[in-house]
Amino acid sequence: MGFFDKVLAWTTQLDLIMWGPAMIILLIGTHIFLTFRTRGVQFQRFFASLKLIFTSESRSEEGKGDISPFAALMTALAATVGNGNIAGVGTAIAIGGPGAPVYMWLAGLFGMATKYAEGFLGVHYREVAPNFTMAGGPMYYLKNGLKNKKLGRWLGAAFALFGAIACLIGTGNMAQSNSMTISMANTFNRWFHGGTAGQQAPVLYYYIIGALIALLVGLVIIGGIKKIGRVSEKLVPFMILFYIAAALIVIFANLDKIPAAFVMIFKSAFGFQPLVGASVGLAIQSGISRGLLSNEAGLGSAAIAQGASTSEDPTKNGLIAMTGVFIDTILVNTMTTLTIVLTGAYLQTQAWQGIEAANNITSILVTQKAFNTVIPFGLGGVIIAFSSFLFGYTTLLGWSYYGEKCIEYLGGDKVIMPYRYVFIAFLFFGAILTPLAGKSFNYLNIVWNVGNIGNAMMAIPNLIGLLFLAGVVARITREKLYQKSAG
């Protein structure tokens, strides 16, 4: 067994442990608990939350903050709507079968209450940093909100530490640059060399694409949150609408298969559809873990973005924050799921054929294959490559800010600029990881495993804080949202 085989086995095992029954119960339990404590705010105030996005007030930059509430949402969405929506969904289906997205949807619906609480607390307990920027997020509401100050400081430091690490070697960095590079390299290989899905592109492609990603990200993140916010509020709406429009082309070409597709999805989710390499347990584990990787409800990351908002009303920031889960999971993830299931791309995954299948495909290649079955001349792959690049690019921007605030919490503002340069270096390494690892595309799961593990280590202190502070969220939400509207 080679080095990367050992790393794959170790990270896979640790991923399964971290996302075992205890974590799933904690995460889903928090979602349900906060849904009850907020009186189902995601259902009662859903349309009001969408309306807030389009008001002029949400775009106002007047107030105690660095960016407008809309720019804060777009920054959070920039980080949230990433390659987890393309590659992560594909990986979840490859591992857990077509039923895995059902658990993404369920976790997303209840997770909207959790995202509301995170956005709320991110503003309610934020501070002004020594460099006069706003500083919010789980580390601050853990430190300032918990009655046990010693526990709060320890949990806040733990979140910041694991957040900084995850931003370098997990979800917010290497996982994104790796998926972006694979998708683009695969497309160029198909164009110029007649390559096929699953065939590795020339090594030089990975280095060129990685250098391009590093340059484009560096030009923005060096300018801080204001520049990230300006880029995000222009780029994020375009990329989401573009991807949905492209997915609808695939879906409309298979309209007659939609009823059967949903039957297959739900049968697989609840164990009524036999699969060679998957089970209901794997569907739940992969669906929920990839769901968090995608929508980040429970991770605490959105609280960092909302903490920079100029709005001082925590309930408004909470409502705006929770719309991100709906857009990410219910809209974008569903588009990816339907394209994979309707086109039969899932039939070549390990969940369907067994883990040793010779033509096994996973990650972003599943989605790319789905689009290519309908859109001719390989243009489906081009669309996925372009979408992957945009999704990954904006995610890198958003997560660079998250990591920056985490490292600032630990070491002060003097470490911000060095962290930005290290962030850029790591994303380049993520881009060239595939040729370094060898020809096996299974090694790509190392990156996603690390992302899952990092997310779990961030989520644990955040979820503990949310449970302790649920009373604060419930009381102010009742006073500001429900009593005001009743009066």
Automatic annotation (TrEMBL):
Q: How does it sit in the membrane?
A: Multi-pass membrane protein
Under the GO molecular function aspect, what terms does this record hold? amino acid:sodium symporter activity
The record's annotation in InterPro entries points to: Na/Ala_symport
Keywords of the record, alphabetical order, are: Cell membrane, Membrane, Symport, Transmembrane, Transmembrane helix, Transport
- Where are its TM segments located? 16-36, 151-171, 204-223, 235-255, 261-284, 325-347, 374-399, 419-438, 458-477
The protein's matches in Pfam families, at most eight in alphabetical order, are given as: Na_Ala_symp (PF01235)
Subcellular location(s) of the protein? Cell membrane
**Gene Ontology, cellular component aspect:** plasma membrane
Spell out the protein name for this chain. Sodium:alanine symporter family protein
